[in-house]
Amino acid sequence: MVSSLIAEDLHKGFVTGSGGRLEVLTGVSLTVNAGEVVAIIGDSGTGKTTLLHLLGALGRPDQGRILFNGQDIFNQNDESLSRWRNESIGFIFQFHNLLPEFNAIENVAMPALIRGVSLRKARPRARMLLTDLGLDTRLTHRPSELSGGEQQRVAVARALMNQPALILADEPSGSLDSTTAGALHKELLNLSHIHNQAFVIATHNPALSQLCHRVLRLHDGSLYEEEP
Questions:
Q1: Which of 28, 133, 171, 174 maximizes the CB count within 10 A of its CB?
Q2: Triad 124, 126, 130: Cα angle to 5°
Q3: Distance CA 18, CA 73 (A)
Q4: What is the pLDDT of residues 38-81, one digit of tens each?
C-alpha cells in the first residue's frame, strides 16, 4: 500500500488548434497519504482530468515530478511504467468504459488478465468484489444488461481488482441519479476505510466532496485548500 504520493510543481500545457499554447497546470503540488480521500473540485476545463492523468501516469508533465513512496514514477521506461500503473493505480471513469462484449466478472478481471493472471485464477476475486458491491446476481450480465448504477459499481470493482494503492476517480457519479450517486459515494468512502486505500476524486458534486477528508480547488492552474 502507498504511504504517500507526492506531486511537486506539476506543469502541463497543450498546443491549440490555432498553433498557440494553453497552459493548464502551472505549478500543482499535493500529497496524498494511505487511506486518505481527497476531492479535487473546480470549474469545467480547469484541468482536473489532466491532473488525474498525470497522477496515474497516463501522461507526462512538462515540468515537475511525482513521487510514489519516494521514487519518481517517471524515472523508468514505458514498459515498467505501464506495469507500475497496472499494479498500483485503479481508475474509475464517469462513463464506465466497460467492454461491451464481456460480462461483469470478465470486465472486473481485466486488470488481472492484463497482468498475466488467468481468468480462472482471477475469477474468485472478481466475484468477491462484485458481491461486496451488491452485484452477486449480475455476475454474468453484460454492460447492456445492467443499469447505469450497476455499470458504475462494476467499474469500481474493476478499479479494485489488482488491490492498487491509489484509486483515481473522474466524476465517478456524474452520470447517476442522486439516490444512486449517494449510495456510490458511501461505498467509495467505505472501501477506502476498509482497505486503507487512497482515493483522489475529481468531482462537481458537493455531496461527494463534503464526505472527503480534504477538498482542493483547482483554479488558474494551481491547487488551493478549501476551508472545511
A1: 28
A2: 115
A3: 33
A4: 999 998 888 999 999 999 999 999 999 999 988 999 999 988 99
Measured distance CA(198)–CA(189) in Å, rounded: 10
Residue 101 in grid coordinates: 462484449
Model pLDDT for residues 118-160, shown as the tens digit of each residue:
999 999 999 999 998 889 999 999 999 999 889 988 998 999 9
**Residue 205 region by backbone torsions, left for phi larger than 0, else alpha for psi between -120 and 50, else beta:** beta
Phi-psi region of 33 (alpha: psi -120 to 50; beta: other; left: phi over 0): beta
46-65: b (≥16 Cβ within 10 Å) or e: bbbbbbbbbbbbeeebeebe
Spatial contact of 23 and 222, defined as CB atoms under 8 Å apart = no
Helices marked H in 15-161:
48-55, 78-88, 104-115, 119-132, 148-160
Give the other-Cβ count within 10 Å of 211's Cβ: 17
Sheet containing 214-219, strands listed edge to edge, beginning at the edge strand earlier in sequence: 89-92, 166-170, 198-202, 37-41, 214-219, 222-225
**Predicted TM-score (pTM) above 0.85:** yes
